[in-house]
Each structure stands twice: as C-alpha cells, then as structure tokens.
Amino acid sequence: MDISTVIGLVLGFSMILLGILLGGELNLFIDYPSMSIVLGGTSGTMFTRYPMNKVFDVIAVSKKAVFNAVPDASETITQFVQLAQIARKEGLLALERVQFEDPFLAKGIQFCVDGAEAHSIANILETEISFLKSRHQSGNDMLKALETSAPAFGMIGTLIGLVNMLANMDDPKSIGPAMAVAILTTLYGAIIANWFAAPMKDKLAFYSAAEIEMKTLMMEGILGLKRGENPRMLEESLHTFLSPADREALKAATS
After folding, report:
1. Where are the alpha helices (DSSP H) in 65-117?
2. Any idea where the domains of the chain sit in the sequence?
3. Which pTM does this prediction carry?
4. DSSP state letter for 99
5. Measured distance CA(206)–CA(211) in Å, rounded
6. pLDDT tens digit sequence for 156-215
7. Rounded distance between C-alpha atoms, residue 63 and residue 119, angstroms
8. d(Cα 194, Cα 202) in Å, to the nearest integer?
9. How far apart, in whole angstroms, are the C-alpha atoms of residue 235 and residue 231?
C-alpha cells in the first residue's frame, strides 16, 4: 500500500473540511443541485468519451495509486546476479527450477530455458512493454478527462446559477439559492479536479514510469542471461538503471 497517497487524500480533504468548519457551517456547502450538475455532468462525459467497461475501470485504475508495489531495482539486480551464477555453473536449464513471482520475469526466463533466440525474446518482451505502456496511458487519460471535465461543469453550473439569479432579481428569496448553485458548482468541480483527479493522475504516471523502467531492466537481465554474460559484467550493466547513490548502496550491501 502506498501510504503517501492515503496521507495526501486524507490530509487534503481534512484541510478543506477544517477550513469550512472554521469559517462557517458545513451545511452551507452542501447543495444538491450543484452536486447533480458537477457529478452528473462529469459522469456523463466519461460515458461519452469511453466505452462503458472502460468508465468503470476508473475505479480500478485509481486503486492502483493506493495499492501498487513496484519491485525494488536493487533486489532485482541482485536476483539476476544469482541467476547468472547458477546459469554459469549449471547451464540455463537449471533456471527452470527457480520460482519467480513476477510473470514478466518468469516468461522471459522460460524463453531462455526453451532455447529461444535472443532477438525473438527481445521482440516479444519489447512488445509486452509497449502494450503495458499503452494500457497505463489509457488509465492516465481517463483521469485527465476527469480533471478537465469537473471544473468545466463547475463553470456550467455557475452560468446556470447566474441565469436563474438574473431572471429572478425581483424575488430576493430566490437570489440566495441561485447564487449558491453558481458558487458551489465551481467549488465542487475544483475539489474533484485538484484534490482527486490531478494528484491520482500524477501518481499513476510516476508508477507507470517506474514499472516500465523495471520491466526494461528485467528484459536486459534476461537477454544478458541468454548471452551467457559473466555475473560481474551483467551486474555492472544493470547498475546503469540505478542512481549513483543507489548504486553505491547496493555495492556496499553486497561487499
């Protein structure tokens, strides 16, 4: 679980709620017509933009920002060094006895064990990484659509409220509710966009880049095993995926 995502969402909502309570009453900021315009309008545009099954995927995509785990690069490099040592002593067939949690890694190692050509392995793994990136971009695009649609419908609600207010200027009692719709729709749209959609989009983009980098590291390690590289040389080549600080920390841990 990504604790920082949970902290960010809870902290952001808490500060908004605290600001409301310190400045007035909570019920002043609850307006059902405004909610229907923003939530209903934004939901409607999502169904218009994407197929129905993809719209409901927004929930699954958002959960990845909270329940996501990218393997540690240092641990993966150490694992590849151990695999290279096994392959050097006993041959690639000995890797068939090793259990792998990551399906991508398991598939690549199995290709090596089965005797597939290096260029064929590279093509298959590169294609899988490409489609992984495409799937991640699709989820990111949906959150971006949510980020742009919510404030837009907030503005639409503001215009609706202003029209109602101007049309009933002779009735003072109607001005307040109309003004509430005008202002609160903008508030609701801004909260959805800036508290939820934009931060979740950015967090998922971060995780996507990290996962793609990890898959690329694994692919290079798999191809290194296929070429029969020396464990030391394979380790050095995979160290290029680490920052200098992480590289030194890994060397210190393994020395």
Report:
1. 73-90, 103-113
2. 1-26, 31-255
3. 0.84
4. -
5. 9
6. 999 988 888 888 777 777 777 788 888 999 999 999 999 999 999 999 999 999 999 999
7. 36
8. 11
9. 6
